Amino acid sequence: MRPLNRQCTVSSQSVKVFAPATVANVGCGFDVLGFALHEPGDEVVMRLNNSGKTTISRITGDGGKLPTDPIKNTAGVVVDAFLAHLGQRPGVDIEVHKKMPLGSGLGSSAASSAAAIFAINELMGRPLSRAQLLPFATEGERAACGSAHADNVAPSLLGGFVLVRSYDPLDVVPIPIPKDLVATVIHPHIEIRTEDARSILKKSILLRDAITQWGNIGGLLTGLILNDYGLIGRSLQDVIIEPVRSLLIPEFDTIKRVALECGALGCSISGSGPSIFALSNALPTAGRIADAMKYALRQVGIDSDVYISPINEQGPKVLG
Amino acid sequence: MRPLNRQCTVSSQSVKVFAPATVANVGCGFDVLGFALHEPGDEVVMRLNNSGKTTISRITGDGGKLPTDPIKNTAGVVVDAFLAHLGQRPGVDIEVHKKMPLGSGLGSSAASSAAAIFAINELMGRPLSRAQLLPFATEGERAACGSAHADNVAPSLLGGFVLVRSYDPLDVVPIPIPKDLVATVIHPHIEIRTEDARSILKKSILLRDAITQWGNIGGLLTGLILNDYGLIGRSLQDVIIEPVRSLLIPEFDTIKRVALECGALGCSISGSGPSIFALSNALPTAGRIADAMKYALRQVGIDSDVYISPINEQGPKVLG
User: Fold this and answer.
1) Cβ–Cβ of A213/B215 closer than 8 Å?
2) How many helices (DSSP H) and strands (DSSP E) are in chain A?
């Protein structure tokens, strides 16, 4: 993207921003579907100063795992890319407060990217729209994961349920959804590295499985837009990724079974796992699913966190 | 399906039914998407008699290629399956008038199946709904093509634009579409056998191509339902089937290019070809596309038929 060389009005000297965790893939939509949760998420505190450089002064909640070098940290990468685009070079200090687990399959790095790009845009007087911020945030994903995936960062930044129709050029489509749709997400306290979850996948798939998958993604989107919960439920099936990645998640089949028994429309792996999501059409159902999932994991000695959340239509927000 | 053993009221002794040609696959929706045209199509004349058996007394327009043996002809197969289901055995005579080219990629056998099942249901007093008739019509497709594809026969029988979400169980979803959507279809006078068009396809595809494809099918359905012509156009891309099958169609790239230059939203192969369809959002545009396509083929000495048709929401109809 060419530098703007635009003189922006700095609207304030500091800002605190929350950006939400996200569920990517959503069963049949590997690499192209995602939605935002109300919780958990990340907080970024950003301050302008006169240093002429970007610093990361503090990271909490990461167990010391994330780099404070701004050219290696996703938050620093997106801020520098954004400022280079504007053609401006104020000093920026960033605090990243991880309020969500790393490596959980809930888009931890995407939430930091989204919070950071939203925060610097606020500080610089909102020169760009959210849609215009998205390419910067996907660059943050490239820094964190090695590839510029958008299925977490797009819903984290834009809110709602999104389809990444294309990566080249980036084409993100907001999907209207039924108002009562609720997600239950369980994060088992085990770790799967995104690289491992990727390397377990084969580069080729059977055409007949792909046909099944694109029938289902078509059905899922049609069901979401037309408020057809029956169709959503029938379409929430993944015959390509879930059968492979679920091998990495202890008791996946049990958790999925109990979720469906409790009335879930469907249940699959969130992102690259180990978190698991279920969708339902009522908060009490989502609560029953949460209890049953957590109980199933506790039976085999695995602790977990559970989140119940309608789809977060807002995306990032300024706190305090 | 279990026999009904239901006593039906025979509503009349003869009926003449038209069922429409269809465009299957629709670019990115191989084996799962299809829509119906207003023309061309097939006509079936069906008469009840006291013979206690099904006969095919006449077939016109097929150049002698179709079998008159009712257990080998798609129309005979669907009628016998339907009557077995009802537990009744009247005599039935069928005339099939092919008003459309065979082996054209426009669902010729599906139109015969749809017309025949619609006609016998009319004659027997409409004991089944159109949705209930669909499994019989797909059996006709199995007789004609060796596999029970539904992406032609479902839109021919149900009308409109349909998604075949699943084949097992059969789950067909009607897709709401923009009212101004128009198809231009050109049938070059060359022949491709469905078996050849199938055998040229590989059994495996790259996962990354499948991801592109399911992004596009998601975009296409979203664009159709939300009346977003821009999104429809961006999504009408097939990176898996078209690059292979288009090799069998002379001047495919030229025809596609001129269609897009004339304002088509997208252009791809109809079914297994050699017919080519383009979608646009206005009848005058569809006309310009038709002229340009026909001219491009004439330049290389290939005659063609061209059809311009809004999506046919009705499906089969009783004539006369």
Assistant:
1) no
2) 10, 12
The identity of residue B15, as a single letter, is V
Q: Within chain A, which residue ranges are assigned CATH 3.30.70.890?
A: 182-310
User: Catalytic residue among A43, A122, A141, A251, which?
Assistant: A141
Per-residue pLDDT of chain B (320 residues; tens, 9 = 90+): 444 444 555 557 999 999 999 999 999 999 999 999 999 999 999 999 999 999 999 999 999 999 999 999 999 999 999 999 999 999 999 999 999 999 899 999 999 999 999 999 999 999 999 999 999 999 888 887 777 789 999 999 999 999 999 999 999 999 999 999 999 999 999 988 767 778 889 999 999 999 999 999 999 999 999 999 999 999 999 999 999 999 999 999 999 999 999 999 999 999 999 999 999 999 999 999 999 999 999 999 999 999 999 999 999 999 98
CA dist., res. B81 & res. B137, Å (int): 9
CATH for the B14-175 domain, from 3.40.190.10, 3.55.40.20, 3.40.50.10610, 3.30.230.10 = 3.30.230.10
Element (H, E) at B244: helix B242-245
Active site residue B285: no
Task: Name the pTM for this structure.
Answer: 0.95
CATH number of A182-310: 3.30.70.890
* DSSP, res A243: H
Residue type, B306: V
Q: Give the domain A14-175+313-318 fold.
A: Ribosomal Protein S5; domain 2 (3.30.230)
Residue in chain B nearest A198 by alpha carbon? B207
